[in-house]
Amino acid sequence: MNTDEYLVRPKEKINLDKVPTSYQGKLTKDQVYRELIPENIKKMKDLQEKLYAENKQALLIVLQAMDAAGKDSLIKKIMTGLNPQGTHVASFKVPTYMDLDRDYLYRIHSMVPARGEIGIFNRSHYEDVIVTRVHNLVEEQPLPEKLISQDIWDRRFEEINNFEEYLSDNGISVVKFYLHISKDKQKERLMERLERPEKHWKFSKSDILERQHWYKYRQCYEDVLEKTSTKKCPWYVVPADRKWFSRYLVSTVILEKLEALDPKFPKLSKDEEDSLDKWKEILKSSR
Fold first, then answer.
1. DSSP string for 178-238
2. Distances from the Cα of 168 to the Cαs of 163, 175, 231, 258, 278, in angstroms?
3. What's residue 98's pLDDT?
4. Which of 215, 213, 217, 207 is nearest to 187 (CA)?
5. pLDDT-flagged residues of the chain (< 70)
6. How far apart are the C-alpha atoms of 15 and 19, rounded to whole Å?
7. When you count CB atoms within 10 A of the terminal residue's CB, does the N or C end of the chain come out lower?
8. pTM summary value
């Protein structure tokens, strides 16, 4: 797979209406689930073990999407085979009053993965330039009036870019995925939540109400992709109408990012290596 086909290049103009939401290539669902995803997970597991042992680098995976695009199930399917000790998932809901009394990156920074970890953001700091923008929520936030101006979104894009570059410069690589679902497919999946009892728990009336703002969200995502996809911290637009393909594509990109980090098992010092035989003998003679 050539993952560069789905990469958003810095400052690239994006019209999501012209970007496919469904995969139409030669791969099959059976082939992906039987061979390709398991192979990716096996390689990811080996690299994660080295990343955890090395304890010098980290990988942050950001997932953004419209409702019902498959973020939760994607995390479950492709991260299941990894060691949970070195994997952390953070889901960001509506900010609390305590969150709103701080800068909008405060709660985000506190959930950044530690060295040696793979962190996954299920929604993220981008909610503050998407949902907040669609519903004009900045006017309800405790901000100085002089900061609530027409250029607030461009300022936040710059702040986010600086924040992510800061993470990258500190050994925390960032890769971002926008799961691109069609409005018809979203309607189908939301209907499943209403019709199938085992999926009722996933239903929220807000999912349906937010559909009224579909095109506002689309415009905000286009702006985000254009202004915050950078060489160090890129965005990938993932066709999400077929979950099996979106899972394969995301797992492939994650594998590529881990391979680029090239983590290594730590090496013992010469003194430690020279003392191994000594400790073997002590262990053998112990009860």
1. EEE--HHHHHHHHHHHHH-GGGGGG--HHHHHHGGGHHHHHHHHHHHHHHH--SSS-EEEE
2. 9, 10, 11, 14, 42
3. 85
4. 207
5. none
6. 7
7. C
8. 0.94
What pLDDT was estimated at residue 160? 98
- Between CA 242 and CA 282 the distance in angstroms is 58
User: How many folded domains does the chain comprise?
Assistant: 1
In one-letter notation, the amino acid at residue 65 is A
Q: What is the pLDDT of residue 56?
A: 97
- What's the confidence (pLDDT) of residue 155? 97
Residue 280 CA to residue 33 CA, distance in Å, equals 44
Q: At what angle do helices 71-79 and 243-261 cross, to 10 degrees?
A: 50
What distance in Å separates the CA atoms of residue 102 and residue 66, rounded to the nearest whole number? 26
pLDDT in tens, 215-243: 999 999 999 999 999 999 999 999 999 99
Residue 12 structure tokens:
């690239």
Residue type, 151: D
pLDDT of residue 181: 98
| Boundaries of domain holding 103 | 4-285
Of the CA atoms within 13 Å of residue 21, those in its CB half-sphere come to 17
Q: Spell out where 233-277 has E strands.
A: 235-239
Q: What is the rounded CA–CA span in Å between residue 170 and residue 115?
A: 10
Tens digit of each residue's pLDDT (9 = 90 or more) over 86-124: 999 999 988 888 888 999 999 999 999 999 999 999 999
CATH number at residue 182: 3.40.50.300
DSSP state of 13: -
